[in-house]
């Protein structure tokens, strides 16, 4: 363009392929970047022998903050600018349920964060476990609200409030209290807290933003995740009522999450990179066979062979074990994954 600075090293943009990244165990561990991740992003942004930029998005099961806040965190960790338009976390697709339920219980995360996320999505009436404890402190015998929680929690008459659905947005900070309240509702007459059903089959549906039993954090060994909480709730319900409780999980490996990611990637390629055609290959880089590799492989079967699974050795998957779901390739780090994909393409 006349008047714009002359760029001596004009980069081309790859339009036939793209990358999608898991975050924990691939790019970040315990809030710190995995060193090769910073280099991997530089390579995709043009610092490579081909003089080429490659479009990419992020697809994590994590959550607990708004997408915009998570992108600020990730930008700082990876030394790039990450836009919410290229970012999906576990609870992102839950925003499509705001019309379906009016009054909802939102579980997990720090303080009021997840309530704010849910209200930002457009949920009209959001209750937290803290609200319920404030109304009746006998709900959780061993959990007392902090002065801050007291101040934030909202008083109302729960005998008259029908909770239509429960959404677990992020990891629980108080398993005992949150499990108690989820079970109270699952065993209630139609979602009215304080009631007890005769049949135990009329509680509100429970949605988890993902189903990872373990995940890769700062500790050397994997840590318990939301899938473990899900199992706990289901097992205890069965123990107490002798009935089965069926809950629902979003996130990877659900096909719907990969469909959501496909739409986001298409929009991102169009808006950011001016590419108007679908990619022939999307390289998905993950560390958890049960969510990342399983989801990519199953989606690939439906998506005309366009998704390609790459497993890294920096997270949940442990070298020397047999992954429950086999990737197309296993490499050491995310940098090797990026090099592998680019080498296949150019
Ligand atoms: O809680 C987050 C964790 O279970 C997985 O995150 O980025 O590995 O999908 P990620
Ligand atoms: Mg991971």
Automatic annotation (TrEMBL):
Biased composition (Polar residues): 1-9
A GO BP entry: glycerophospholipid biosynthetic process
Top-rank lineage group of the source organism: Eukaryota
One term under GO cellular component: mitochondrion
Coiled-coil intervals, chain numbering: none
Name of the molecule in the record: Putative cat eye syndrome critical region protein 5
Organism of derivation: Venustampulla echinocandica
Span of the entire protein shown here: 46 to 391 of 446
